[in-house]
């Protein structure tokens, strides 16, 4: 999937959008002072930063399967407990947290229901489990313009539209199947202004995520053709990219 590179590459690519998502997502999950909170799939720490600002570093923990991303998060937030672990095998005791959040993670889970059930396990009874995923299927993610152009120029190219949680209602279904109750869903939207085409395009070349992996698979001529096509299709700079994400939350019960 392209998540083993430098954290700065992810920051430049998706971090510019996910950082803007973090505040609204934490609001939706009801994160507030006095809680102990876990950031599942924390990456370099876009959501971690928001959680620290709300509850303090000593009340935040994070996990990520990428050694390099976890190391970056530890460097940035030395007082936060950051572990290298997948969402499906969290290294915490039952009922350890008041809220467990997964921002832009579910669509990379092989078994979302299993992994969300594991998130619920480490949440106290009555606590909140929440997740959000870009609306790739509906075509309103920050990457949708890129995928639209790519699908027209290379019909065999991969797409993120079929990934778990990218369709309306899927996250709520996963939470319900994992045993959570009082499920609520919403849409979160971010906006990022790009002063130049290069500001938007250059991070795509850094190899992060499925997009980066696809671009790295092209030869020089293929990348040049893709860039020319995108330059012609993108709005004149400066331009704004709007991205929407599905979000769902549920309450953890006593019997899980």
TrEMBL record:
GO biological process, one term: methylation
Record has Nucleus as a keyword: no
InterPro entries, sorted: Methyltransf_11, Methyltransf_Superfamily, SAM-dependent_MTases_sf
GO molecular function: S-adenosylmethionine-dependent methyltransferase activity
Record flagged with keyword Transferase: yes
Origin superkingdom: Bacteria
Classification via SUPFAM superfamilies: S-adenosyl-L-methionine-dependent methyltransferases
Keyword field: Methyltransferase, Transferase
Protein name per the record: Class I SAM-dependent methyltransferase
Residue span, Methyltransferase type domain: 38-130
Pfam families attached to this UniProt entry: Methyltransf_11
